[in-house]
Amino acid sequence: QVQLVESGGGLVQPGGSLRLYCAASGSLFSYYTVGWYRQAPGSQRELVAKITPEDLPISAASVKGRFTISRGSAKNTINLQMNRLIPEDTAVYYCHIRDYWGKGTLVTVTS
Question: Cβ contacts of residue 9 below 8 Å, gap of 6+?
Fold first, then answer.
């Protein structure tokens, strides 16, 4: 059983930055693509960014140039650096690998 734990969410003003963290038990991050998804109230869950085992990052068009996914310095961690946040980025952000999801961390962008 794989456990994913997200952290780093919070309240931020438009134009601000946050860094999200995903930590996993086990060593799946080395072998499978890891993704960050988000779900806003009343909306479907959508892909934000993902990173392959070869460290190839892929970002959704809505966040390209603002968000960066990367492997953390600690083993089995994935980070999501979010810059120039806008109110439309408000959502619960989830970490995902294979069939596993974390419980999410809330990001709220508001003035």
Answer: 18, 20, 92, 93, 105, 106, 107, 108
